[in-house]
């Protein structure tokens, strides 16, 4: 059984003036499950832009925004996908929350348009952001968990379609970042089509070292990650890590 509680992926992008910290976080049913929103907001306040998975309604985002503004003394904003993604009774939204002094929303790119209705359990969702002189499309994903690993591997093999879709949607914007909960380590063979892409798409965290999911006693797997193009996203400083309540691990 998985317990995803307040563990973040850290992505840094360097500008002439400053550094912007981008994170991804599976919120474990934000807006529905009972949470200490103040403590969650204290962790979120350490980042400039956070992509959120498992958002159940907008109410949780409103509470986060209010707490973040109290904690930081700065203005924050959020965006939630126009509709929930999923099948059957369980569906969830994708959302983003950011500090307005550091990041601005240019335009929602929307959901990935599937070639087949069964390509993804939850279609990835993207938004076009700007931070300083850096424009980028930030795509969030929450892959199927599935009782059989084969289902997860098949979805992983389709993220190359997601990357190509958002690259073509915003043709002048070559910086496409895909992040989220993939329910597989990034070095799984399912991602091979993505990582052999001519635009040099690589995962950021090391799946053998950077565990991101909280189990009963410790961190237990590396299902969460970022995929970026080393060819185009040259603003990436190479600094990354997993944020833990108790300990912060930073790679330099």
From TrEMBL:
<dbReference type="GO" id="GO:0016787">
    <property type="term" value="F:hydrolase activity"/>
</dbReference>
<dbReference type="InterPro" id="IPR005135">
    <property type="entry name" value="Endo/exonuclease/phosphatase"/>
</dbReference>
<keyword id="KW-0378">Hydrolase</keyword>
<dbReference type="Pfam" id="PF03372">
    <property type="entry name" value="Exo_endo_phos"/>
</dbReference>
<dbReference type="GO" id="GO:0006308">
    <property type="term" value="P:DNA catabolic process"/>
</dbReference>
<feature type="domain" description="Endonuclease/exonuclease/phosphatase">
    <location>
        <begin position="24"/>
        <end position="201"/>
    </location>
</feature>
<dbReference type="InterPro" id="IPR036691">
    <property type="entry name" value="Endo/exonu/phosph_ase_sf"/>
</dbReference>
<comment type="similarity">
    <text>Belongs to the DNase I family.</text>
</comment>
<protein>
    <submittedName>
        <fullName>Deoxyribonuclease I-like protein</fullName>
    </submittedName>
</protein>
<keyword id="KW-0540">Nuclease</keyword>
<dbReference type="GO" id="GO:0004536">
    <property type="term" value="F:DNA nuclease activity"/>
</dbReference>
<dbReference type="InterPro" id="IPR016202">
    <property type="entry name" value="DNase_I"/>
</dbReference>
